[in-house]
Design goal:
Layout lengths: L15 E2 L1 H5 L6 E4 L10 E2 L4 E2 L20 H10 L8 E4 L7 H10 L5 E4 L2 H7 L5 E2 L20 E2 L1 H8 L4 E5 L3 H5 L18 E2 L15 H12 L4 E5 L6 H10 L4 E5 L2 H5 L12
Parallel strand pairs: 1-6, 2-4, 2-5, 5-6, 8-12, 9-10, 9-11, 11-12
Antiparallel strand pairs: 3-7
Helix pairs in contact: 3-8
Length: 283
Amino acid sequence: MHVSETFEPLEMPGPLVGAGWLAARLGRVVVFDASVGAHRGGAVRIPGARPFDLDGVLSDHTAPAPHTMPTAAAFQEALRGLGVGDDDAVVVYDAAGVYSSARAWWMLRAMGFGRAAVLDGGLPAWSGAGLPVESGPAVYEGPRGSFTARPRPGLLVDAGTVARALADPDAAVLDARTRERFAGTAPEPRPGLRAGHMPGALNLPFGDLLGPGGLMRPAGELRAVFKALTGERERLCFSCGSGVTACVLALGATLAGYRETAVYDGSWSEWGLPSERPVVTGA
């Protein structure tokens, strides 16, 4: 049954919810499994979870970089096909913990949908709390929804915007890849990409925002992590390999109170291609 047909709109506590919060509201929220890669289509799911397929329909496969945001029309059609309405509340998780779920959350925000949150700790935290799971991959076979895409400019940005941010003393560009990939001492997993990073970018591996049990660190700790790198700068732009873990940084920055944030959609999969865009190596 469609969530908004049975209940009044549910108030969301913020961009992050715990397993206990979700367990008390199963059936009142739309739950999405946004797992990617080896975790995609896993053997178990949170009861009632629907597929937010970032490796499939919810990326633009005509774009040169993986995990590129679809057009507003394509995104709207996909969400309607998954039964989402404008008044629904949405919680997104992934089987790795807090990884690709943040990408789904950011995409929803970029399309003007503010009633979404990430499940803190993802499926591992849910299972670790002894909460029930169902077997088989996430599926949805219910009625269509009425989701309306209302794109918010500036949340997903292109290479030109990133280049301007790199030259702006009041902005910071943060790269969520590992320290070795940032420095260029480890090979890129995608063929054809140059090794290294954008000149002036700062390295903040997304795992640094996670604490015990793979949960997001408290807001005060997150703020301290960002401030140690960016100082007093409040305009932050995030990049990674393909625009997925950059959204973990966006989630952390949002929890830490930053309001002027953006994700580079193409990320290193675009910037690192052979081109005139500058690349440097070293820490």
